[in-house]
Amino acid sequence: MLTLATTTPGEPEIFASLQGEGPSLGRPSLFVRLSRCNLACRWCDTAYTWRFTGDNRPHRDDTAFERSANQLTLSEQDVAARLLAFPQDRLVITGGEPLLQGAALARLVTLLKAGRPGLHVEIETNGSVAPHASLDPLVDQYNVSPKLAHSGNPADLALIPERLSAWAQDPRAFFKFVVANPEDLAEIEALEALYAIPGERLFVMPEGIDSQTLRTRSRWLSDAALTRQWRFTDRLHIHLYGDTRGT
């Protein structure tokens, strides 16, 4: 069984859109958003996947979500059938933290690749959870977003050395750092040096949930990326659709 986020009560967050971030930006993709996360970012724009009533971990707007309206459990067969009804040949599994459900994801992806040979599978992860042994060989690309100090997560939970080292050595893993302030850049430089993260697999992305904030931060962040030979990524879906579910 898989635990999914919802767009509206009772409707799983399964949708087709253009990938809005990272190395696949602009590609037509199919998305499934899973619920639950082991971290709690202050600026998280999908807090409905983890900040349920009774969870008092800090968040910038302090909204608490009712679990029953924002979380749905479905079988892997049901999810696979829903996904295969779409024509896209690129799947992005996002969250929440998808790798918390690694064994069930392995069963789902096995069904999907049997039903659609050649399906490209991306998993978006915060980088703190190891892939399940049966899932890892089925994944074509990892979009790894380690959480910096401004996220509010303790480093011993968010930046696990053995995991960062493993991701840096995996050519399928692309790093995507969310940046809010110029002070964040030194932290990224330190991680890049410590774990020998290749510059061609290191993206920086402005934090923001509206176009004006993204554009303002992009001005100085794009210059920083150019100087340091990092890759820059915008948040295309925010510009196109706003901060909305199912986009």
Automatic annotation (TrEMBL):
Source taxon at top rank: Bacteria
Needed co-factor(s): Mg(2+); S-adenosyl-L-methionine; [4Fe-4S] cluster
Binding site for [4Fe-4S] cluster: 37, 41, 44
Chain ranges of the Radical SAM core domain: 24-243
Cofactor binding mode and count: Binds 1 S-adenosyl-L-methionine per subunit. Binds 1 [4Fe-4S] cluster. The cluster is coordinated with 3 cysteines and an exchangeable S-adenosyl-L-methionine.
Listed pathway(s): Purine metabolism; 7-cyano-7-deazaguanine biosynthesis
Annotated positions binding Mg(2+): 46
Protein name: 7-carboxy-7-deazaguanine synthase
Encoding gene (name): queE
